[in-house]
């Protein structure tokens, strides 16, 4: 059977890859959104692993809610992206300096 | 034994697909590799006997969210070369951060690799239904969060539509409230005029607008 620490290592590798992806693709807004999706997936993998190992199904229910929120987040994020591209003709993060943050 | 072999094969596919996703130049290829990541994760969750979540992951992510990503990527017509310029400056730093993250978590997990970290899931009986268990919990104990999630999705729908809807110039369309609010006096004017005998040729010219 699959051991708990294998799953933890796999999800940490996924987490690290998506963090590195945020550094590498820090110009491209759409790839940043994809990296966020991968990051949430790695967190969900921990939830599933702990839920199955400890025999407690509440963890899997939490994954369900995380998936809901992530779907809503990506829908709104992509809508903002479309509006942004219509205004600026670009999705480069460095062009978004109107607020001077 | 077969489960372990399959787990390592799927873990390798997942890691390679994730690595390829963050390094490819083309956003369409990145989206397709992310689909592969989700699919492989669903297979791993099936191996963990979390069947309902595996199916939901494929239906929601591969079927809806990634299709949305692909639509947006293809709609936007991005200049790839311009976006991906000067990438290597951050690649080194990103690799360092990722390496530190993996090292920390792996060292913590392996330092406690005794009984607790090496635990395996109890294999479930053949007639055990993961979906029925989740459904019972979802509609009894978690019914209020479930409704909140539904409201959240509704808000997301309204927000996405209202953000992306635009008024195009020169488009002919109905304005219902104006149509309902119109009064008789705005449209009709009755002109009284005396009846004339015989001069029928001049009558159309004298009628008011």
What would you say this structure looks like, in words?
The complex is a heterodimer of chains A (101) and B (209). The N and C termini of chain A lie far apart (50 Å). Chain A has three helices and no strands. Chain A is mostly helical and 101 residues long. The mean pLDDT of chain A is 88. By secondary structure, chain B is mainly α. Chain B is built from ten helices and no strands. In chain B, helix 1 (2-23) packs antiparallel against helix 2 and helix 2 runs antiparallel to helix 3. At the A-B interface, helix 1, helix 2 and helix 3 of A face helix 1, helix 2, helix 3, helix 5 and helix 6 of B.
Question: What helical percentage do the residues of chain B reach?
Answer: 55-70%
Distance between the termini of chain A: 50 Å
Q: Output the helix-strand order of chain B.
A: HHHHHHHHHH
The tally of strands of chain B reads 0
Class by alpha and beta content of chain A: mainly alpha
Residues in β-strands, percent of chain A: under 5%
Order of helices and strands of chain A: HHH
Query: Which spans of chain A have pLDDT < 50 for at least 5 consecutive residues?
Result: none
Q: What is the average per-residue confidence, as pLDDT of chain B, rounded to a whole number?
A: 85
The average pLDDT of chain A is: 88
Terminal CA distance of chain B reads 92 Å
- Helix content bin of chain A: over 70%
Of all chain pairs, the largest interface belongs to: A-B, 70 and 86 residues
Q: Report the major sheet of chain B.
A: none
Largest sheet of chain A: none
Quaternary state of this entry equals heterodimer
**Rounded Rg of chain A:** 17 Å
The tally of helices of chain B reads 10
Q: Unreliable runs of chain B, pLDDT <50, ≥5 residues?
A: none
């Amino acid at each position: 059977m699959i051991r708990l620490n294998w799953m933890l290592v796999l999800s940490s590798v996924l987490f690290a890859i998506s963090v590195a992806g945020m550094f590498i693709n820090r110009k491209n807004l759409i790839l940043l959104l994809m990296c966020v999706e991968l990051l949430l997936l790695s967190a969900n993998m921990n939830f599933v692993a702990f839920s199955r190992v400890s025999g407690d199904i509440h963890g899997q229910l939490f994954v369900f809610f995380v998936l809901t929120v992530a779907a809503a987040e990506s829908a709104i994020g992509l809508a903002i992206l479309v509006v942004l591209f219509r205004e600026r003709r670009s999705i480069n993060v460095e062009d978004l300096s109107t607020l001077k943050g | 034994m077969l489960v372990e072999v399959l787990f390592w094969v799927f873990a390798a596919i997942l890691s390679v697909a994730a690595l390829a996703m963050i390094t490819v130049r083309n956003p369409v290829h990145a989206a397709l590799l992310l689909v592969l990541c989700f699919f492989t994760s669903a297979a791993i969750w099936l191996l963990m006997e979390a069947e309902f979540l595996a199916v939901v992951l494929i239906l929601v992510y591969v079927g809806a969210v990634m299709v949305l990503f692909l639509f947006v990527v293809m709609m936007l017509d991005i200049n790839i070369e311009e976006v991906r310029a000067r990438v290597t400056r951050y690649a080194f730093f990103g690799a360092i951060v990722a390496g530190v993250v993996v090292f920390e978590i792996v060292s913590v997990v392996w330092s406690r690799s005794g009984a607790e970290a090496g635990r395996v899931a109890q294999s479930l009986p053949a007639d055990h239904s993961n979906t029925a268990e989740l459904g019972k919990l979802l509609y009894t104990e978690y019914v209020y969060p479930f409704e909140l999630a539904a409201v959240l999705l509704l808000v997301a729908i309204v927000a996405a539509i209202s953000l992306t809807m635009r008024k195009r110039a020169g488009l002919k369309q109905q304005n219902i409230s104006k149509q309902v609010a119109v009064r008789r006096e705005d449209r009709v004017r009755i002109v009284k005029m005396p009846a004339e005998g015989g001069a029928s040729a001049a009558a159309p010219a004298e009628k008011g607008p």
